[in-house]
Amino acid sequence: MAPLLLGAVMLVAQLQLVPSRPAVVPGNEPGQPELVRKAATLQEEIPDGAAPNGSAQQLPQTIIIGVRKGGTRALLEMLSLHPDVAAAENEVHFFDWEEHYSQGLGWYLSQMPFSAPHQLTVEKTPAYFTSPKVPERVHGMNPAIRLLLILRDPSERVLSDYTQVFYNHVQKRKPYPSIEEFLVRDGRLNVDYKALNRSLYHLHMENWLRFFPLRRIHIVDGDRLIRDPFPEIQKVERFLRLSPQINASNFYFNKTKGFYCLRDGGRDRCLHESKGRAHPQVDPRLLNKLHEYFHEPNKKFFELVGRTFDWH
Ligand code: A3P
């Protein structure tokens, strides 16, 4: 009962004391990581929220914004190997769900883990990348925030997206149409299938680039993260200006799972069984249509970000 009461008191204190928008620090450029951290630290404003060991909740200084099924959980888990990273456990859906956003930054803060002042707080909500309202809202909170975006081959992402929803239905013992039923309408590729739209990366990226310069968005190659995670994670460490503390020995390939798993202080763990599931077999001609459909959008995306990816 006592911890419950204390939690309620702390939450009320936060809601009253956290400004609806934290101070924006002008000139907050990549060379000034300390400013970024201080801008997003509300410790001073909410002494009641601080734990006795000096830790406190902080607004995230970096967010994994997506893409859904890009490998966002793997990225978060791998980044959490770093001692200076504190990650929110669940997807917070603050910027994309009105019922959360309307509760203000005090609520958002209350969802964050307790962390030491030198630690970076990170949350991941994959739906942010494809939600039109989100870039402006994130910018309103902190224009100097560093964003992580993990992408994979757009066609593969569609299959992964389908597989996830398929298993959600299986769990609830509900029937679910085959992937062909979603992908084909009147003998043609059904471009209204939502999963296709989520893979039109250039459209969503344009929304983000209206509010953030490209240098604030680090794109993780999700296909490479599957094949060889360590180099991708090293790049993330550099982007976040973290000291290089994650090692190749933190990763080992698990033949049974068919994916890399994590080794942390002698503890081995793989991602949940819902990550890395087999995708449905799709007729090669239909798959080809899918690859063709993404050809032009991919080119546009590569131009937008000044970089190419090894996608079909
Ligand atoms: P599949 O399950 O379709 O293979 P997200 O966490 O954004 O939902 O992404 C899930 C995807 O992460 C998985 O999609 C899988 O391919 C990918 N992934 C990347 N690294 C992984 C790892 N080490 N273990 C399991 N899945 C991983």
Automatic annotation (TrEMBL):
One GO biological process term: glycosaminoglycan biosynthetic process
InterPro entries: NST/OST (IPR037359), P-loop_NTPase (IPR027417), Sulfotransferase_dom (IPR000863)
Broad class of the protein's primary localization: Golgi
EC number: 2.8.2.-
Binding, 3'-phosphoadenylyl sulfate: K69, G70, G71, T72, R73, R152, S160, Y260, K275, G276, R277, A278, H279
Catalytic activity: alpha-D-glucosaminyl-[heparan sulfate](n) + 3'-phosphoadenylyl sulfate = 3-sulfo-alpha-D-glucosaminyl-[heparan sulfate](n) + adenosine 3',5'-bisphosphate + H(+)
Record keyword Nucleus present: no
Subcellular location: Golgi apparatus lumen
Residue ranges crossing the lipid bilayer per the database entry: none
UniProt keyword Disulfide bond present: yes
Alphabetically ordered keywords of this record: Disulfide bond, Glycoprotein, Golgi apparatus, Signal, Transferase
Cysteine pairs bridged by disulfides in the record: C261-C270
Gene Ontology terms: cellular component: Golgi lumen
Pfam family, one: Sulfotransfer_1
One annotated GO molecular function: [heparan sulfate]-glucosamine 3-sulfotransferase activity
SUPFAM superfamilies given in the database record: P-loop containing nucleoside triphosphate hydrolases
Family to which this protein belongs: Belongs to the sulfotransferase 1 family.
Function: Sulfotransferase that utilizes 3'-phospho-5'-adenylyl sulfate (PAPS) to catalyze the transfer of a sulfo group to position 3 of glucosamine residues in heparan. Catalyzes the rate limiting step in the biosynthesis of heparan sulfate (HSact). This modification is a crucial step in the biosynthesis of anticoagulant heparan sulfate as it completes the structure of the antithrombin pentasaccharide binding site.
Name of the featured protein: Sulfotransferase
Natural source organism: Ovis aries (Sheep)
